[in-house]
Write a structure and sequence with these properties.
563 residues; Methane Monooxygenase Hydroxylase, Chain G, domain 1; 2 domains; 78% helix; elongated
Length: 563
């Protein structure tokens, strides 16, 4: 094997180690701050500065503005974020990603080896600790260390390539056309879908004297355009607002790039950038110069454009017009969970909960429709019922598939316990849909027989339905918010349903004995009561599933203690 091939392989190995370290660091920081990330997004308001702060924080944690923007596109697609909220998060994400560049610029410090040695410290911590927090912290150190190991190997390999093939340096230095450099930066970033990786490569090239600072800054401008490709791809197949969010990302970065591209044609400004205290072509400073320019670009662009967020949102809304809304039960797609969220598993877990609550809503709506049908002996809405039932079956299958993917990602132990209960909950909800189908069949039997329930039986059905409705509301409240007080209420309503069922069964048998009701109707009514009791059981299962992962809280009400 020739020297050049050997050094190129080492260069690729260093890039791989750096990217793997970045991924480990990102996953570990996400695991440590998962709840806080979820909480920050759930509390997001219309305050644009709050959105910028959250976008910057999330992007700094997961080390990717592209990943943050893709996640935002998903949140807009599920209706959790408005376009206005998404726009401020996208601006913040652009600022947050500069933290990674500044961190990578530390590679030029003479203490890089100390940073790299943190990988060994992390390995030792894993061997001697069992606590989840310290294990996650150990992986943070491993990721941080591997990041600098990779950068060091890349830099050493690049020096060896230059020493053995000096003509390579001339090849890079000949590229001076600003527009060509900008397009090159945009194209490579779009292909790799990572401005972080491009920043690392650019810093290695610059510190080894392969590219001037005045050329590198045009590549940085191109990188900010190229990173929009990821969000544009992510918006394919999404709803209108998601496409608008991706378009906003492109417009924001495009306008910032045009502003800076024009400013760099002003000789005094360009000279200041290249020769000032902050910036410079000195190999010992150029890494900082690239990182600082990247930060200055995004901070300045945000400062200039943040007052004009509303006009931008209006312009994007005109560029991407709204489509005619469709019946949601006709659309076989997930409402909240999205492949885009898998990059931040803690947020994905929260969105799974939302999707399950949505499934519960569809199942209970069908149950309500079935009760109305049997009371009125009317199947005019059977088509709506069947559409919704197909949607429930779809949700059951797709949520299960998503949970399998999520389980295989890097999740915390608490999230793992939550996901384990989700499998059971969606099965319970699917069974509620099945029992609602049974009730529709009972209605058909009444229609075929030309009969209906007596007024007394109808009033009894309304009584037990009201109790199940309260149980549904308490169960969803308990499940969605880990609310132990709501769990207490759900348990009370579930017992009330059982007692009411027993009371109604006895009353109906008495009517049968008094020949106030036909035998056929009596059999349907008793089967219906059994199905209603089972529906209540499945709803209560949803509520009590939180006991598997809600620990350290004790609630006592009316002599009942839940731990």
């Amino acid at each position: 094997m020739g020297d050049l091939a050997k050094y190129i392989l080492l260069l690729l190995a260093g890039l791989g180690a750096m990217m793997f370290g970045m991924q480990v660091l990102s996953d570990s920081l996400t695991k440590l701050s998962g709840k806080k990330l979820r909480g920050a997004l759930s509390r997001l308001t219309s305050n644009r500065f709050n959105g910028i702060f959250i976008g910057g924080t999330v992007s700094a944690v997961i080390h990717s503005s592209a990943a943050t923007t893709v996640m935002v596109v998903g949140l807009v697609n599920s209706g959790i974020l408005t376009l206005f909220q998404a726009s401020s998060i996208i601006m913040g994400a652009n600022i947050g990603t500069t933290v990674t560049g500044l961190m990578l610029s530390l590679q030029s410090l003479p203490i890089t080896e100390i940073f790299a040695a943190l990988a060994f410290v992390g390995i030792v911590m894993i061997l001697f600790t069992k606590k989840p927090f310290f294990k996650a912290l150990a992986y943070v150190l491993i990721g941080f260390g591997l990041l600098f190991v990779g950068m060091n190997v890349m830099s050493s390999s690049m020096k060896s390539i230059i020493n053995s093939h000096e003509n390579i340096k001339d090849l890079f230095w000949k590229v001076k056309n600003p527009l060509l450099l900008l397009l090159l930066g945009a194209l490579l970033t779009a292909i790799m879908q990572s401005s972080t990786t491009m920043t690392a490569i650019l810093i290695v090239l610059a510190t080894n004297g392969l590219i001037r600072l005045e050329s590198a800054i045009y590549v940085v401008l191109g990188m900010n355009l190229g990173t929009c490709a990821t969000s544009l791809i992510a918006s394919i197949g999404a709803n209108t607002n998601s496409k608008r969010a991706a378009m906003f990302h492109l417009m924001f970065n495009l306008i910032g790039t045009v502003i800076f591209f024009c400013l760099l044609y002003i000789p005094p400004l360009k000279n200041w950038l290249v020769h000032s205290v902050l910036f410079g072509n000195n190999p010992n400073k150029i890494a900082y110069s690239i990182a600082i320019f990247h930060a200055v670009f995004n901070l300045t662009t945000t400062a200039i454009l943040v007052p004009f967020v509303n006009p931008f949102v209006k312009a994007v809304s005109k560029l991407v017009p709204e489509k005619k809304p469709k019946n949601e039960d006709d659309q076989m797609h997930l409402r909240y969970i999205d492949e885009r969220f898998l990059v931040t598993s803690s947020i994905a877990v929260g969105e799974c909960k939302r999707e399950i609550c949505y499934m519960a809503e569809r199942a209970f709506k069908n149950f309500t429709l079935s009760i109305d049908s049997i009371i009125d002996v009317d199947l005019s809405k059977k088509e709506d019922f069947e559409k919704r039932e197909r949607k429930i079956d779809f949700l059951n299958k797709e949520i299960t598939k998503y949970l399998v993917k999520l389980t295989s990602s890097n999740i915390s132990e608490e999230d793992e316990r939550m996901i384990a209960t989700y499998y059971h909950v969606i099965t319970d909800l699917e069974r509620i849909g099945d029992y609602a189908e049974n009730i529709i069949e009972y209605t058909q039997r009444l229609i075929d027989d030309g009969t209906r329930f007596s007024p007394a039986a109808v009033e009894e059905l309304k009584e037990i339905y009201a109790c199940i409705s309260n149980l549904y509301l308490s169960s969803v409240q308990a499940f969605n918010y880990q609310d132990l007080n709501a769990l207490m209420q759900a348990e009370i309503y579930e017992e009330r349903v059982d007692n009411t069922k027993d009371k109604l069964s006895a009353a109906h048998i008495e009517r049968l004995e008094n020949k106030e009701c036909s035998v056929e109707n009596g059999a349907v009514f008793l089967s219906l009561l059994n199905d209603l009791e089972r529906i209540a059981d499945h709803l209560f299962n949803m509520a009590k599933s939180i006991k598997e992962y809600t620990q350290g809280i004790v609630v006592q009400t009316e002599g009942v203690v839940i731990k």
